[in-house]
Design brief:
CATH architecture of the largest domain: Orthogonal Bundle
Distance between the termini: 61 Å
Largest sheet: 3 strands, mixed
Number of helices: 23
Oligomer: single chain
Shape: globular
Number of domains: 2
Radius of gyration: 23 Å
Bound molecules: zinc ion
């Protein structure tokens, strides 16, 4: 092993220990921690973040990264070691320009924002959260400006933190395609929406029974319960301490069958990615913070391409009917498949169907762009939000909790994250097209055999963690760059057929 890389390892380990502790606090806050723990937790999170900051920005790390970036030392590094160095340099450049005190203040603010956000959302009062949001935006803007080159767009800097290479130019082009193709398609679908009845979805579904079925589904998809756990939280999410400790959450509504089932399939898609990371890179920067778009492509692939297909449900539907014999007594497999694919504009992103989903992201993308271009005030956000929902989806949120407060991302200081969701959906469609030409995917699903699909994804995507940027990995797998045409075609074909347009 390269001597400088070897000297880097203890720092990586210390950093990862702090990151794991932070992830645990975050997991705990979302699942089990009492509300009144938040204030003290925010202090601990601030201290741990500052420690991690010091590990990643100390002089020794700077010295080692400089050495390891030289052509001579690069030659002796493996592909994954190179990736670790590249990702560390990126992180170093991001952090080292922020004064430690400001970094700690920001981490504390993010932790303290959580209960403020939750209360405001509960009451639907944007004004209660607006001052905190303003501070979060100020910090984010200031931090981005510290590393901006002359004339560089601040929003592009934020986007690059989640998705290398997906600049506003690429995304403008992508979202224009999405808008031009999908807004008219959604109008046509909405006009024919009464042709699909999904009343079954709103029967009485006891949470403990849902929880049992979801656990079964997770195992069916390949979730390894020796390496992972499932808990409950307000919003389902996945977190990973390392590849042997992957945690997902779910949320159960007793009057909604689909919500928890499809959240579970989605989060399991994320979990399989995390569990599939190679041991050699788990716990390093290349094994913990993957490309968000690629990550989301896996959850979307499982949720939509697999989880909403008839073939997937063929072997499973009898079990689902047995689980809810009264509610589903008169529902056929075809009714159910039409129901789980029904597209209906609604105000909530996380409850959105596959067709309207990217419009929710488009709206957030357009707003974030405006915020960081300095074109919109925080106090204007609820109105702008409502206007865009009216324009693209033909609906108006009834209050802020259904509108601008519905997502937690901004409250966590995550700006520039949302586009990854749409990029992920588009990549999922591209991968799906590729995989159906490569393997008898439908047959596997009908047989209830998900192993070959999971193994293919693990061997070609998951095991690499964050070693390759999204586009590079996608090209490595499919032979083609990111191409949103697959996504547009997939949605157009699917919904034209489903609604006989
Ligand atoms: Zn996701």
């Amino acid at each position: 092993m390269n001597q400088y890389y070897e000297q880097l390892l203890p720092y990586l380990e210390r950093n990862h220990a702090y990151q794991a502790a932070l992830a645990l606090f975050s997991w705990d806050s979302e699942t089990l921690a009492p509300l009144s723990a938040a204030e003290q937790t925010a202090t601990y999170v601030g201290i741990l973040s500052e420690e991690a900051y010091h590990v990643l920005t100390c002089d020794e790390i700077q010295h080692l990264l400089k050495k390891l970036s030289s052509p001579k030392e690069q030659d002796s590094l493996t592909v994954s070691e190179k990736a670790v160095v590249r990702l560390l340099v990126k992180e170093y450049e991001k952090l080292s320009c922020i004064p430690a005190k400001e970094y700690r203040e920001f981490s504390e603010l993010c932790a303290a924002a959580h209960p403020i956000y939750c209360r405001a959302k509960q009451c639907g009062t944007f004004e209660d959260f607006a001052p905190t949001l303003e501070k979060l935006i100020d910090y984010t803007r200031r931090f981005a400006s510290y590393r901006a080159k002359k004339g560089e767009d601040l929003y592009n800097i934020l986007l690059n933190d989640y998705e290398e290479g997906f600049t506003t130019d690429v995304l403008d082009d992508f979202f224009t395609k999405v808008r031009d193709a999908l807004v008219p398609l959604i109008k046509k679908v909405t006009a024919k929406n009464d042709t699909i009845n999904k009343d079954y979805n709103t029967g009485y579904y006891p949470p403990e029974i849902q929880s049992g079925f979801c656990r079964f589904l997770a195992g069916y998809l390949g979730f390894d319960f020796n390496k992972g756990v499932i808990a409950e939280s307000e919003h389902p999410f996945t977190t990973s301490l390392h590849n042997h400790d992957v945690r997902i959450t779910n949320h159960f509504y007793d009057d909604n069958l689909e919500s928890a089932m499809f959240s579970l399939i989605h989060e399991t898609g994320h979990a399989l990615y995390e569990m599939g990371v190679e041991d050699a890179i788990s716990g390093t920067p290349a094994g913990s913070s993957m490309s968000m778009g690629m990550h989301e492509s896996q959850s979307r692939f499982y949720e939509n391409m697999i989880g909403r297909s008839k073939e997937f449900w063929e072997p499973l539907f009898p079990k689902l009917k047995d689980t809810y014999p009264d509610e589903l007594a008169h529902v056929s497999l075809d009714d159910f498949i039409a129901g789980i694919n029904k597209a209906e504009p609604g105000p909530i992103r996380t409850e959105a169907d596959e067709l309207t989903y990217p419009l929710h992201i488009l709206i957030r993308y357009e707003l974030e762009k405006e915020i960081f271009a300095g074109n919109c005030k925080v106090s204007d956000l609820p109105d702008l939000w409502a206007k865009k929902y009216e324009e693209y989806l033909g609906i108006t949120p009834k209050d802020a909790s259904e509108g601008v407060l519905q997502d937690i991302h901004w409250a966590m200081g995550n700006f520039g994250y949302f586009p990854s969701y749409a990029i992920g959906s588009a990549i999922a469609a591209q991968l799906y097209d590729y995989l159906t030409g490569r393997m008898p995917l439908s047959d596997y699903l009908k047989e209830g055999n998900l192993v070959p699909i999971r193994e293919y994804l693990r061997d070609h995507i998951h095991k690499y963690g964050a070693v390759y940027p999204t586009n590079e990995l996608l090209k490595q797998v499919t032979g083609e760059d990111f191409n949103p045409d697959y996504y547009i075609r997939y949605l157009t074909d699917k919904y034209t057929k489903l609604y006989h347009l």
